[in-house]
Amino acid sequence: MLIHETIAGLRAARAGAGTVALVPTMGNLHEGHIALMTQARAHADQVIATIFVNRLQFRPGEDFEKYPRTFEADCEKMAAAGVEHVFAPGEAEMYPQPQTYHVDPPSDQAGVLDGEFRPGHFRGVATVVMKLFQIAQADVALFGKKDYQQLMVIRNLVREFNLPLEIVPGETVRAADGLALSSRNGYLDTNQRAEAPQMNRVLRGLVEVPDVEVGVEALEVLLPAEPCRGGDESDRRAAGQKVLLPQPLDHVAVAQEVDALDPGCAVGDPGAGEQRVHRPGDPVDGGLDGCAV
Description:
By secondary structure, the chain is of the alpha/beta class. The protein has helices at residues 7-14, 31-40, 71-80, 91-94, 107-110, 114-117, 121-136, 148-160, 190-206; strands at residues 2-4, 20-25, 46-51, 85-87, 140-144, 166-170, 213-214, 220-223, 241-244, 252-253, 277-278. The radius of gyration is 20 Å and the shape is globular.
């Protein structure tokens, strides 16, 4: 496995690499990242993985400085996964001068769901991804479904800029208790880690419920007085039955996967499928923010 710290070095290696699959990451790798790299091998002759903590996608006060940097351990995992090339540039290599040109996704794609609470985040993501696409000149790029909004923004970016590469999604990889693997799960204390899988269990249970209301004050899901899909009268739920969510939470949104943030069917538009959104006031410090479900 070759490690490249410069754009020129990666491009020189790319020239003789045949078809290439790109797996962009910020490092602190877990089995979800490794699954993407393993999946990438089926799509190209060689795999390029990138490790770069991108300042542009962090808001002031977020965790840019403390985001875990575990480069040596990451390299061991990538080598074991059969990655041929690692692109690990410094900030001065990626941004030798302040970035004045940006890729700014439209607000109906980047200003909803997670983007509503992290203004500018997807602008930073789209900008660095465009730069990585231009640097690596890959034939295929892989992104996980765990960050579903990011996946949709990048798919739309590739389509609208007519970029000559295919975006391949990877399935979410979960711990044994159902919690999606995430580099930020390490921020959770023991109690929060024990609570976090409850969110996944609640959401999976709600798939069969035809209507849902998310409580604004109590952080609870109110189930309608309807039987579960496929059930009978004995399965009928009482109106207002409560399913408690782990708390404190920063925000909750319930939307249908089929919305997919397609420009023609933006979340929040009539018929787009968004149900009800809980928007508390200020984010709660020390909550489950950034914890995947």
